[in-house]
Structures are given as C-alpha cells and as structure tokens.
C-alpha cells in the first residue's frame, strides 16, 4: 500500500444556512461538518459510522466536491481539488463516484437500465458505437451479478437488492478509483445485505477500488473495513483499526453504538450502555464535548466546558475524549 492517500480532507468545515430566526435576525448557522481531517488509502475501505444527522453524508459528498466546503482542503490522488472549477473537475468526476442508500430515488423510473447505464458512459465519452454501448452495458450487468437481458427492464421491475446492483453498475460504468458508498445496505432486507457487501468486496479486489463506506450501524462495517472512523455532531470522535474499535472501543459514544446494535453475544447485556435521546441539533450544539449531555461518564467542570481534541491513545488509535 503506497503512503499517499487516494482521497483526503483536511481541517474541513461545512456550514449550511439553518432556518430563519425571525424577521431581521438572519439565519442560524448549521455546522454539519466541524473540522474533520480524514484519509482514505488506496485499496482500502474506510468505515464511517455514526447516528443519523451526524454529518456522514455531507462529509462523503465533500470528498467528491458535490458540496462546496466552508473551509478546509480536499485532495484526490495527491492533488488539491478544493478550488477547481466544474470544468477542471471533469477528469476527476469519472474517478470518484457515489452509491446511494436508495438507488431507486436516483434512477429515472422512465429509463430502462440500458439507457441509465449508457447515459453514464456517454457523459464521459466512453462509448464509440451502439454495439459497443450494448456490450459494455451487458458486461457491467454481469459484473454486478445481473443478466444482460435485464438491460431492457425498468427500475420498478427489480427487487431492492437488484436495484442496488444497478446503482453499483452505474457507479462502475466510468471505471472509478474511489467510491463513496453512502449507507448502501441500510435500506435492504437483512437477508440480502451480505450479498451486496460481498459484491462490493469482490469488486474492490478485482478492480483495486477504494471505498469510504458509510453506515449508521457499526456492525455493518466491521467485516469490510480495515479502519473505522466514528462521527458525532460533525466531528470524528474515534478512529482506529476495526479490531481496535470492536475489541477496545475508547470513546463512550463508540461503546454506546456498539452496545445499541443487536449482537448475538450472551454477555452483551452486562456492558449494555443505552444511548438516550437524540443527537443534539447542530444548530445549537452543546458547549464543551458535544457528547457530554448523553455521556454516562461525563465530568462536570471538564466535559461541559472543554472540547476534547482527537488524540493518539496507542498506535493507530485516536479518540476525542477527556477521560479515554
Ligand atoms: N442541504 C442541506 N441544507 C441544510 N442542512 C443540511 C443539508 N444537508 C444536511 N443538512 C443537515 O446537516 C446535518 C448532517 O446531515 P447529514 O450529513 O445528512 O447526516 P447523516 O448522513 O450522518 O445522517 C443534519 O443536521 C442535516 O439536517
Ligand atoms: Mg446520510
């Protein structure tokens, strides 16, 4: 594995305009991504987990310049792409793709699968003739475990798992190097999640892809990611190898996420830690450690006052907790 990340964000912030605060009082600032530095190495899957609303999708889209950052830098294959114009971004667009939770919402219901995949190929000038196009579409469908004759069908004629395969085929159409998989199995039946996860792993091996794999459930990324980053209210609060995260989680938020997920572990109840309440609004984040109002070990005078920085606990393991 080379030392240079394929994709990197550095000190990245993204604010959205929040709802109006009333006449003449302007709009609140909603900080969805709050100072994140993160690398994805070539050929790896980096897992990104956290509850809904923590900023995972926003961060994933920032990696691909599908959002404009408020500040910070974005690199792809070592090049700073933060300020490239849309036309300068074109050669990069092909190399970085996204897979969505619900491919149905991103597939045009009136377009056949062939038309949808051909569109992706044509945008990047990757087909020379109609027969070439047909061959490429057929090959893409076979690569994701569908049949070539499926190209004549419409999205509604497929099951959820098959539609996700079409979403994957469309991302693969342009031969990307890096894919943001934004909760690719969250909407699927538990029984077919493993098939899609295995397909993504097989494709990674075959094609040398790198993934940012987003999930709200830590157990989904356990088997596919060598490294995991846990996000809370726009920040990375723990980052480590998968083994470190699952065997020795250090941030109370990570521990709570692990014990909240259903695991077939007879001892699980002993260390069960219930996550109460919801993620606070990024419009009005808590002072100090953003997790302290929900944290079972928070200390008054410390956690409610000082923001903990992400610090190295041991080789490859970082957490942002005063008490870790
Ligand atoms: N386009 C947008 N405009 C305003 N607020 C947004 C927008 N996209 C996301 N947000 C807000 O940013 C926060 C993070 O959202 P998101 O990145 O979708 O989180 P996640 O993917 O972890 O569920 C949420 O509070 C969400 O409401
Ligand atoms: Mg999301």
Short structural summary:
This protein has 324 residues and is α/β, with parallel strands linked by helices. It contains 10 helices and 12 strands.
Describe the structure.
This protein is α/β, with parallel strands linked by helices. The protein has a domain at 1-18 and 28-95 and 212-324: Rossmann fold, CATH 3.40.50. Helix content is 30%, strand content 23%. It is built from ten helices and twelve strands. It has an eight-stranded mixed sheet, with helices on both faces. β7, α7 (190-207) and β8 form a beta-alpha-beta unit. α4 crosses α5 (130-143), α4 (113-123) packs parallel to α6 and α6 packs parallel to α7 (190-207). The protein is globular, with a radius of gyration of 21 Å. The two termini are 30 Å apart. The structure holds adenosine-5'-diphosphate and magnesium ion. Magnesium ion binds next to α1.
